[in-house]
Amino acid sequence: MSVRKVAVIGAGTMGSGIAQVFAQSGIDVYLRDVKPEFVDRGLSAIDASLARLVKKEKLREAEAREARGRISSGTGLEGAADADFVVEAILEDLEAKRSLFRELDGALRPDAIFASNTSSISITKLAAATKRADRFIGMHFMNPVPVMELVEIIRGLQTSDETARATEELAKKLGKTPVEVNDAPGFISNRVLMPLLNEAMFACMEGVATPEAIDKVMKLGMNHPMGPLTLADFIGLDVCLSVLEVLHRGFGDPKYRPCPLLVKMVDAGYLGRKSGKGFYEYP
Is 119 a catalytic residue? Predict the structure, then answer.
């Protein structure tokens, strides 16, 4: 399958990063969000990211300009109508995603492939909201998208072999390494990662150690590049909570119960880096 144009739905941290890597790979991109200010913020993030790559001499200035020129944007779906491939990157909420995919199903070509960047929600459930379950797949990028190599490829119950092959080939074209996993809550990445972050939060809540000490132990003792609480702040505490709730509901196992401290922090609006405060403060 030849992918000439991709629509990325959602211009947040993940969506803007996904749009950037497609554009850098020579593919035209339509970046869509529901409000102009969300779109503008996403485009500004792409501009800043491309500028950093030029400054680090990982990208020539002409290449950055060409990549940026491949990105169009808007708040409607008209610009996505001729897309060969769609990547959804909106908030981690089942009903919001289902509603979007029902809308996309009627607005885009019937042969277009739909991919969700969900980090935990069932691909089979999302695909059932469309009339193209065989052309529906999970394509879970890692944050920050321009830097991280892995893409989890998640097949739903009805995902065709052709769709899986096309998605894996596309991931390789982006310079990523696709790894196929089955459709289960949290897939592999978050099924393994989130209990680790959650346990670090419990240790903090119970006064076992400060956030700084917990992170230092995991960095120096386990050779992690980033401590678990720093990583949780980077991901977004609201996202961590959403994923843990999916794991808890999906498996019915108390080991996935979200830490009460995490719930309280999200209720307070302490979401990590994006809000300026989480386990650490970000001026």
Answer: yes
Give the active site residue among 116, 122, 140, 198: 140
Tens-place pLDDT, residues 78-112: 999 999 999 999 999 999 999 999 999 999 999 99
Residue from 171, 139, 143 nearest 155 by CA: 139
Whether 198 is a known active-site residue: answer no
Helix (H) or strand (E) holding 179: strand 177-182
Does the reported pTM lie above 0.85? yes
Catalytic residue among 73, 116, 122, 190: 190
Distance between CA 113 and CA 108 in Å, rounded?
10
Q: Looking at the domain 5-182, which fold is it?
A: Rossmann fold (3.40.50)
CATH number for the domain whose boundaries are 189-275: 1.10.1040.10
Per the annotation, the verdict on 92 as an active-site residue is no
Which of 73, 152, 168, 242 is labelled catalytic?
152
Domain ranges of the chain: 5-182, 189-275
